[in-house]
Every structure is written in structure tokens, then in C-alpha cells.
Amino acid sequence: MKPKVTMIAWNQNDNYVVTAVNNHLLKVWNSSTGQLLHDLVGHADEVFVLEPHPFDCRIMLSAGHDGNIFIWDITKGTKTKHYFNMIEGQGHGAVFDCKFSPDGQHFACTDSHGHLLIFGFGCSRPYEKIPDQMFFHTDYRPLIRDSNNYVLDEQTQQAPHLMPPPFLVDVDGNPHPTKYQRLVPGRENCADEHLIPQLGYVATSDGEVVEQVIGQQTVDQDEPGLEPSILDGMIRQLQLEQDQRTGADQESAPSGPQNGEGTPRRG
User: Fold this and answer.
1) At 120, is the secondary structure helix, strand, or coil?
2) How far is residue 62's CA from residue 69's CA, in Å, rounded to a whole number?
């Protein structure tokens, strides 16, 4: 197999460069001379995550598709800590990304099964207060393109970045209580009635009909103390009546000859 570099990272003070190679080795190099200092052995699949510690120049984190997460002392070429992302009943989960906190006391990883893994010092009780499953209800909504080739949300016909803040739901699309909806940026100060999503029945790709969040209130309605605009409702009603009249006139208008044959008839 021809060796290929899959990822590269400098340490905190730029004295060392670490490269991940597709033969599952990590190599530590002197960044000034280019001298190979260490081969770091431990991964069993390709590595696409190399993350330097924010202030300790000795520490480098690596994670890969084999589910392994290593913390290395790159000055000595040794392992400091190791974690294997085993998921009960599903084998291991490939680790796709990792990031240190600014204080270097914690790091978070995401895996191929949609899990967020948080490591660090201290107590885990604060994290036990939030649900195990958290998704935005718009995460898997289909997108379309308009005539200008801009992306729009298929259901609302809006640009995704202009849509109101989404709701938090579980993996089945069931919304979480209002106290969790305030965790979403943009909903921190909403009244309780604006934190209850609109539910409806939708068909899944396999034909099963399930109850899910199908819509949400507009940005104006999400603001505390505001009621739906009466003027907007009147405009929509007038437009609907006009469309109905236009359709009726078109149906009653004479139809022209078809293919140059026959005489016009009144509908």
C-alpha cells in the first residue's frame, strides 16, 4: 500500500508536526529540521482527527474510524490516556471530530452514531439534566432550489438561515418540554405558549405514518407578548378570494379552437 498522509497538525508552540498516515501510524516530526522523532502506534484504522492541547505543547489528541481516542505525549512518543468508543449491541462507533475546551480541562467528540462524548475533570451531574436524545426538528427536512439556484426549505419555501429557531426533539421527532426548548439560541426569552411546536402526522420513507413537528410560528410570533398579525390574515384572505375569482373567470371564458379544428364553445 502506498503511504498517504490523511491529516496533519502542529502542536501548541509549533515545535512539532504530527502526521496521520493511512497505514494507521502517527508520525511526530521536528518542524524545523524535518527529522522524524517518533512513530505513535495504537490506531487500527484511518485517523482524521488530530487536535493539539490549547496550552500544553506536549499533548496531542488523536481519534479515528477504529473508535479509539488517544491522548499522546508527543515529546516522549508515549500514550497518556486511551478510550475505546464501544456502543452496546452495535460494535464500535467511528470518531469523526474532537475539540478541546479553551481551558484544556475538557474535550468533546462526535461519532458515527450521532453521539456527543464529553471527557474531562469534575462531576457529570450537570449533563444528566438534559435529554439523552436531542435533534433539531429541521435536521432531516428536504431542501429544494429556486429559479436562481438558491437553497430553500421545501415545506416553508424559506431560505434555511431565515427560518425561525428550530425545536428540540428526540430521535423519533417528539418535542421535548419547554424548559429544554429555551436551550435553543433565539428562544431563551420566549413565552411558554411560543415554545410548544405544531404537531402533525407525516409519512416516513418506509410508508409508516408518525406524529412529528411539522411547523413552527413565525419570527414575529416568537417574540414575547406579540399576537398573530390581523392585517397579515386579512391580506391572505383577500389574495385567496382573488385567486378563486380569477380561476372561476378562466373556467367560464370561451375556449379557442384546438389544433385549428372545430368551433369555440362556451365552458
Assistant:
1) strand
2) 6
pLDDT digits (tens, 9 = 90+) for 31-86: 999 999 999 999 998 899 999 999 999 999 999 999 999 999 999 999 999 999 88
**Beta-bridge mates of residue 20:** 7, 26
Helices (H), the chain: 125-128, 178-181, 219-222, 230-252
Closest CA to 21 of 8, 9, 32: 8
Q: What is the CA radius of gyration of the chain?
A: 28
- Rounded to two decimals, the pTM is 0.59
Contact of 65 with 95, CB cutoff 8 Å: yes
Burial environment of residue 86 by CB neighbours within 10 A (0 to 12, 13 to 18, 19 or more): exposed
Q: What element of type H or E holds 107? A: strand 106-111
Burial of 103 (0-12, 13-18, 19+ CB in 10 A): exposed
In this structure, what DSSP letter does residue 94 have? -
Between CA 209 and CA 211, with CA 210 as vertex, the angle to 5 degrees is 135
Q: Which residue reads 502506534 in cell numbers? A: 41
Torsions phi, psi for 16 (to 5 deg): -125, 150
225 vs 261: CA distance, rounded Å? 64
Question: What domains appear along the chain, each with residue ranges and CATH number?
Answer: 5-124 (2.130.10.10), 135-216 (no CATH)
Neighbours of 71 (CB within 10 A): 17
Cell numbers representing residue 208 in the block: 409508516
